[in-house]
Design a protein that fits this description.
Blueprint (H helix, E strand, L loop, with lengths): L1 H5 L11 H11 L2 H8 L6 H11 L1 E3 L14 E3 L2 E3 L3 E3 L12 H11 L4 E3 L7 H8 L4 E5 L5 H14 L4 E4 L9 H6 L11 H4 L2 H17 L12 H21 L4 H6 L2 H12 L7 H4 L2 H4 L4 E6 L2 H10 L3 E4 L13 H12 L4 E4 L6 H9 L4 E4 L1 H33 L9 H4 E3 L2
Parallel strand pairs: 4-11, 5-6, 6-7, 7-8, 8-9, 9-10, 10-11
Antiparallel strand pairs: 1-12, 2-3
Helix pairs in contact: 2-19, 5-6, 5-19, 10-13, 16-17, 18-19
């Protein structure tokens, strides 16, 4: 299709080369959007390690295999996959494009690729689920300090048709994200990325209780301009007004009414207080079987001991991930952790790989090293920045097409055939 359009003088809007894709997306995104999406923790060593881990492996093609057809289909916990690829959850994507979650869902659906919907999304999960059509989706949960809110989010996901629940473990606190810090930018303070919360009845109950308690106590929030003077105060006033307007626009209801209401600001403050639980423990996870009927996966596992304990707990699968290098600088690369975890737990348990996957050849390597499927994170956001839902679709189609071609050129007739013994060797 790409070559056919090329004969008509129509090069692809979304580059197939991952470096060029990133470069063009950078030009299309604001500084704050780029910092949030592409930024990493600390000096970026973990993000670099994720790519370096793939570079340590080489694919060894086999010749004269006679295979003319490939079967890329697989199934993970009852969810069919067209190419062992899923769309990773990315929060606050509205920094990149309006209605980002809806556009990602449409693009994922067009590519027949399941989407893991983020708790830090910019559209209620029910709307995102509708945009997925018949394509399956999973729900990713951040465990709140309010247990009733945890139950509410899980219940909504089940009711909306989520096929599995992914509990993210590695973001009980935000990492030291230097690009965001140097811009003083946290999207949630603008009301970006909290739509799952402001559409949730339990969360809004908490917000209204807080507003009522403040009113009853006669408490007024301190002005954000306190302590500033002169030109700095003028600049701060402008910034404060923009923040209030951003919060009002994203809060349910009319913008004009929201500007007169304490609720939008209280919702942001409540979110920042309770969205994640720094005290999350194995004891919390032991309650999951009582809280949901759908399969449960834990995302953020990097140590074999944790993988083993998770499976002993009865979860249905794990996602080996270092959050794309966004949480702990100098963390182990996800691909390296995958190898160690598979050696410990064996081949049967469901294990997905997240972080560092950029191409179809990367997917091939990950599958050969023991992943049952992979998650695509930043690249689909780059596609979103360049061409909306069509850009998301093109990125996913390109990854799956390269996987298909790599299988054809190496002799793997099916996903099951892709093994370390058959096709990989360490780089000298």
């Amino acid at each position: 299709m790409i070559y056919r359009r090329g004969t008509l003088g129509q090069p692809p809007r979304v580059p197939t080369d991952p470096t060029e894709l990133e470069s063009r997306a950078r030009k299309a995104m604001s500084d704050k959007a780029w910092a949030y999406v592409a930024g990493a923790a600390g000096a970026g060593a973990t993000a670099q390690a994720n790519r370096a881990a793939f570079d340590r492996w080489q694919i060894v093609p086999r010749m004269l295999h006679g295979n003319t057809r490939r079967d890329l289909r697989t199934e993970i916990l009852g969810t069919p996959l067209a190419g062992s690829v899923m769309v990773a959850p990315v929060g606050a994507a509205e920094l990149v494009a309006p209605k980002a979650d809806i556009e990602i869902a449409r693009g994922a659906s067009a590519a027949a690729t399941p989407y893991i919907v983020s708790t830090q999304g910019c559209s209620p999960m029910e709307e995102t689920a509708a945009a997925m059509g018949e394509t399956p989706w999973w729900y990713q949960l951040y465990w709140s300090t309010d247990e009733a809110l945890v139950d509410s989010l899980i219940g909504r996901a089940e009711a909306a048709g989520a096929r599995a629940l992914v509990v993210t473990l590695d973001t009980t606190m935000l990492g030291w994200r230097t690009q965001d810090l140097d811009l003083g930018s946290l999207p949630f303070t603008q009301g970006v990325g909290i739509a799952q919360y402001t559409s949730d009845p339990r969360f809004m109950e908490i917000v209204r209780e807080r507003v009522a308690a403040s009113a009853a106590a006669g408490v007024e929030a301190e002005s954000p301009l306190a302590g500033t003077r002169g030109a700095a105060k003028v600049r701060a006033a402008g910034g404060g007004a923009r923040t209030l307007l951003s919060q009002a626009r994203r809060h349910p209801g009319g913008t004009r009414d929201n500007l007169r209401s304490p609720e939008p600001r209280a919702a942001v403050e409540t979110f920042l207080d309770i969205y994640s639980n720094p005290g999350l423990s194995w004891g919390h996870l032991e309650t999951l079987r009582e809280r949901t009927r759908i399969p449960v996966l834990l995302k953020g596992i990097l140590h074999p001991d944790d993988a083993e304990r998770a499976l002993d707990l009865g979860v249905d699968g794990i996602i080996v991930s270092n959050h794309g290098g966004r949480q702990v600088d100098r963390s182990i690369a996800s691909l390296d952790a995958l190898i160690a975890i598979r050696e410990r737990i064996g081949r049967d348990p469901v294990v997905l790989l997240d972080s560092g996957v950029r191409t179809g050849a990367d997917v091939f390597v990950a599958l050969a090293l023991g992943a049952d499927a992979t998650l695509i994170g930043r690249p689909h956001i780059y596609g979103l920045a360049l061409d909306g839902a069509d850009g998301v679709r093109d990125v996913l189609d390109n990854v799956i097409a390269e996987l298909d071609l790599t299988m054809g050129l190496t002799g793997a007739a099916s996903i099951r055939d892709i093994t370390r013994e058959a096709f990989l060797q360490p780089r000298p």
